[in-house]
Amino acid sequence: LTFPLLSVTLLVSFGSSMLYGYNLAVVNSPAMHIKAFYNATWSRRYGHGLAPGPLTLLYSLTVSIFALGGLVGSLLVGVLVERYGRNGALSRSAFLVLLAGGFMGFSRELESPEMVIVGRSITGLHSGRCCLGCRANLRGFLGLMPSIFICLGVFFAQVLGLPELLGEERFWPLFLSVVVVPTSLQLLLLRCFPESPRYLLIERNDVCGATKALHLFLGTPNVQDVIKEMKEEQRSFSSVEMFSVWQLLWDRSVRWQTLSVVVVNAGMQLSGIDAIWFYTNTIFENAGIPPSQIPYTTVGTGAIEVVAGLIGCFTIEKLGRRPLIITGFCAMGICLAGITVSLLLQTTLPWMRYVAVACVVGIIAGFCMGPAGVPFLMTAELFTQSHRPAAYIVGGSLNWLCNFTIGFIFPFLQMSAGAFCYLVFCGVCLLVALYVYLVIPETKNKTFMEISHIFA
């Protein structure tokens, strides 16, 4: 692991994964102010305010439309990377965030809730874009690096949402549009790094450019072995027929691998983690936490999730994938059940509000230690190159669709089921943990053939 390789990984995560985390949590703190803006604008337009049901529907759409944009962006990644390269695709997608920041930043001045919704969808489109890969022997550590920045993004959104910073009513448009700052920095600093060596050699046949890039990223003058390896990879790619999504779904030789990708990626979002991030303040309010303490309690949970993410990042190569994802989902399931119990008993036992806070912390910590990043690593490690692009499309599409579903229906689920709504997520977490325990093998340091034999 060289300094330039680590630097470009941090830079890409800073301007991509961190923005994803920021946009997950940024709608939590100003929810009340955004709803008030929607209601006031509607009243000025039509002479009457919005009823609670339609207002909740409009706000839920604002929250969840981010995921629909992400779905579209994830489906466009392959085309953009093939045409512009990884560096070029990232630079071009950065302009989307600048556009989205303008929409959201000026929405109140122009009295347009539609601009907030459009801005959220554009930031989702950006978040569906790609990140730079890493060398195979470092994929566990660097593969979880984006999840650390997702946690940092959530944490920064929680800190900026404090009343002393951007948490006041007059600042919420600025709060939503802060995303332009890290994107602008990424756009400027990406020019200091060359294009991906693999793209230069395989897609553009630029041996000289690939050699210079490898010199920088690997920190060694002797890169001929790596060049030779990539040329062999290029020849093997040209002789391999890539599977479509439809072919993948009907290929019986990888049916268990495909089912595993579906289970872990859908389970990651249906675990309820997005409900926790999107509606943290509402959950704490229902748990009986005093309103003045809620922003600071939320920041505390964010700090703990960053620590948990770092633990997962630095232990994945030692402990393996299975222990982290099984432990993470089990911890989340237990804590989700704990939230239900604490909400049911808080009227008779006031100290149960602190149990609810502890359970929220446990859910976030459990998620960041394993389920946050391991499913993406497993998707790469369960398939050969011929099946892998289709597997990523399946996993990524499910991820974004489930993200949208939870963000949209959670307020209504909470209104109809009350404290028992968390038991739905509890069941999902425990079932996914059981599936991983019974079906999915440890993939650390195993070849695809070894993994295939285990599945067979």
UniProtKB/TrEMBL annotation:
Subcellular location(s) per record: Cell membrane, Sarcolemma; Cell membrane
Keyword rRNA processing: no
Keyword terms of this UniProt record: Cell membrane, Membrane, Sugar transport, Transmembrane, Transmembrane helix, Transport
Transmembrane segments: 57-81, 141-159, 171-190, 324-345, 351-378, 390-413, 419-440
Catalytic reaction equation(s): D-fructose(out) = D-fructose(in)
Cellular component GO terms held in the UniProt record: sarcolemma
Superkingdom of this protein's organism: Eukaryota
InterPro entries (UniProt xref): GLUT, MFS_dom, MFS_sugar_transport-like, MFS_trans_sf, Sugar/inositol_transpt
Domain called Major facilitator superfamily (MFS) profile: residue spans: 9-444
Keyword Lyase: no
Record GO biological process: D-glucose import; dehydroascorbic acid transport; fructose import across plasma membrane
Membrane topology: Multi-pass membrane protein
Record-level Gene Ontology MF annotations: D-glucose transmembrane transporter activity; fructose transmembrane transporter activity
Similarity comment text for this entry: Belongs to the major facilitator superfamily. Sugar transporter (TC 2.A.1.1) family. Glucose transporter subfamily.
Name of this chain's protein: Solute carrier family 2, facilitated glucose transporter member 5
Taxonomic source organism: Chunga burmeisteri (Black-legged seriema)
Lineage: Eukaryota, Metazoa, Chordata, Craniata, Vertebrata
Gene from which the chain derives: Slc2a9_3
